[in-house]
Amino acid sequence: MGKFDNKHAARGAKRVLLFHPKHYRNLYPFRFGHPRDRQSQVNLHNPNFDLFPNFRFVEAFEAVLRPGDVLYIPRLWWHHVETLSEVCFGVDCCVVLCC
User: Fold this and answer.
1) Burial classification of residue 68, based on how many CB atoms lie within 10 Å of its CB (0-12 exposed, 13-18 middle, 19 or more buried)
2) How would you list the strands of the sheet with 2-11, edge to edge?
3) Least confident segment among 10-14, 17-21, 29-33, 59-63
4) Segment holding 92, helix H or strand E
5) CB 64 within 8 A of CB 15
6) pLDDT of residue 1
7) How far apart are CA 7 and CA 70, in angstroms?
8) Are 68 and 12 in contact (CB under 8 A)?
9) Inter-CA distances, 93 with 3, 52, 70, 71, 77, Å
10) Which of 63, 78, 66, 65 has the alpha carbon at shortest distance from 30?
11) Contact between 91 and 18 (Cβ < 8 Å)
12) What is the pLDDT of residues 26-50, one digit of tens each?
């Protein structure tokens, strides 16, 4: 069974950072059961390398989505999305393949 996410930009622009699953530990996720589990503790705009020293080894792939673009996010890849325009909305779709 496979799972993947799609990000669609319907209006405006979005910047998406993708992180390979090999960087999981270096993204310092909140512990399981925490209200923000499956999210990184690191402030991506101003990382504290004293608190999160291995974050300096994380590499990200960057994409800018504009209306009509679709981005495929593979299973287990971490992502961060931010808007680049004053008005921005999109559609996210999670697909689970069972066959």
Assistant:
1) exposed
2) 70-73, 2-11, 89-97
3) 10-14
4) strand 89-97
5) yes
6) 44
7) 6
8) no
9) 11, 31, 10, 10, 15
10) 78
11) no
12) 999 999 889 888 889 999 999 999 9
- pLDDT above 60: residue 3: no
pTM score of the predicted model: 0.80
Cβ–Cβ under 8 Å, residues 10 and 89: yes
Distances (CA, A) of 3 to 26, 53, 63, 93, 99: 23, 31, 20, 11, 11
Q: Are 26 and 55 in contact (CB under 8 A)?
A: yes
**pLDDT score recorded for residue 18:** 95
Phi first, then psi, for residue 38 (nearest 5°) are: 70, 15
Query: How long, in residues, is the chain?
Result: 99
Higher-scoring residue by pLDDT: 81, 5:
81
Residues 49-76 pLDDT 10s:
999 999 999 999 999 988 888 888 888 8
Residue 51's alpha-carbon distances to 2, 12, 29, 47, 57, in angstroms, are: 35, 35, 13, 9, 14
